[in-house]
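We keep the chain:
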Amino acid sequence: MVKLTGHRQTKGATTDKPNLMSPRHISTLPIANKVFHPHPSSALNEHFRRRPYQGADPKHARFLFIGLDANYAADVEQSLLFPRLLQYHEDGPKFWRTAGVHHPFLLPQYKGDGRRYHLTFAKIGFQPKHANLVSFTELLDRPTVGRSVLIAEDLDNVHLRQIRRWIFEGSAQFTFVSAGVQRLMTSSDLFPELSMVRRTFGALRVLYEGDDRAVFMHLHFSNYGKFEQQLQSEAKEIARLLLHSDAS
């Protein structure tokens, strides 16, 4: 059973300020108010078609981190890292246990976008032994390139309903979303339980709490600078939840 203690009541949440990267020089696919950049890699798209997640299977993971979209460099297929990236997408837990890092973006040869997110995540303290407990999934069920400004109409309802099952019916004890993700989830009308912050749990904000699971709002892991103290505080709370999970 999940029991959250050491909290106080709250009326609202601080604003999440994601670190938005500059758009690459590629064509944009605008439809009405959409700005959406599908990735051209057929190999990446095939992986996401078969497994619209990264890391462990979300159905069985205890820790579920939900993002907006999985973003890659336009020329990622030409990178020496690409074979390792495909290995990761094929079996995330195996990659973590063999490489010693949870994501290929943390390998020494990778210098591109996305590294900050995973460096911040790594500070929480998850180890290779936790590889089967941690899953990453995105609201958009396909890979992207450059900067995307997503709206609810961009999202596939079948995929969103699958995410809903992972959150509320799967093994996930703790689910984490940023403010931007929470806004898009609630605008889809498929996640009414996540419409507002109920209270705080240390530095984290609680969106939902049941007998055996909870959903938290946190700062996007790509934030930095003036958000560093908040990121560190939230990382400590997630580490505390990990300690609780290890002991259960």
About this structure: The chain is about 30% helix and 15% strand. The longest strand covers residues 204-209. Residues 6-32 have pLDDT under 50 and may be disordered. Residues 9 and 199 are 5 Å apart (CA to CA).
